[in-house]
Amino acid sequence: MSRSLFTLVRDLKRPRGRERRELALAEGVRLLEEALTADVTIQHVLASPALEATPRGQALKAALEAGGRTIQAVSDEELGELAATEHPQGVIAVIEPPRWRLDDVKPGPRAPVLILDAVQDPGNVGTMVRTAWGIGAAGVLALPGTAEVTNPKTLRATMGGLFHTPYVEVDEAALEAWSLACRVPVLVAAADGAPPEQRRGETLAIVVGNEGAGTRSSLDRWVHGRIGIPLRAGAESLNVSVAAGILLYEVTRE
To answer: In 3D, which of 166, 82, 131, 117 has the Cα closest to residue 251?
Structure first.
């Protein structure tokens, strides 16, 4: 492996490196399969013998080669040193992540928007992007303080959702302006919120908050209401990604 490629991969493990280069690392067979399906630009591929240990890995390698992508062979030990996740499954790729814009987010009936307010855990962020994709949400908007979506662990947790569902970082002023311009009511997830079945079929956006602090108080100045999941007595809250999944599912049900 060339020194320049080694340096590139190491640099992309750091947030500043990803931001400066506008690139990201995709690790694992499933994520690379989705990158191919979504026609994401793949600049480099590093593969170790572990990739060919399964039929699925063999098929991925064949698909990458059929697409004209050069695969840099490395040892399992070298790949393990470069990987950001514990189980890279024998493959790491340098990709150009999609550059979504607010115009790409097109909410509608049963196509809600999920808004993440300073959700800090990469696994939670990735899971919610994956859930939004699976349920058919129009997109995901991320307020400041939210874990970086191109963090290798976050990206892997999306399971390819970022390649298919618009994801846009916004500040609160831009979010409010978007809501007004698109006439999309914004509802904050809260324990005392109205049951989600009351909003089925509506065009709306749902805000879920930080794992410990909840949503920022400044949102209360302009949002259009609160939405919540009735819980049994004694249960204080749900994991934020679980709550987001339930809310998205309920408002999109027939």
So the answer is: 131
Amino acid letter for position 194: A
Cβ atoms of 106 and 115 closer than 8 Å: no
Stated pTM of the model: 0.93
Q: Which residue has the tokens 């970082």?
A: 169
Residue type, 85: T
| Domains of the chain, earliest start first | 3-96 (3.30.1330.30), 102-252 (3.40.1280.10)
Torsion of CA 18, 21, 26, 32, to 10 degrees: 150
CA dihedral over 141, 143, 149, 153, signed as positive or negative: negative
- Encode pLDDT of 144-184 as tens digits: 999 999 999 999 999 999 999 999 999 999 999 999 999 99
**Side chain identity at residue 181, one-letter code:** A
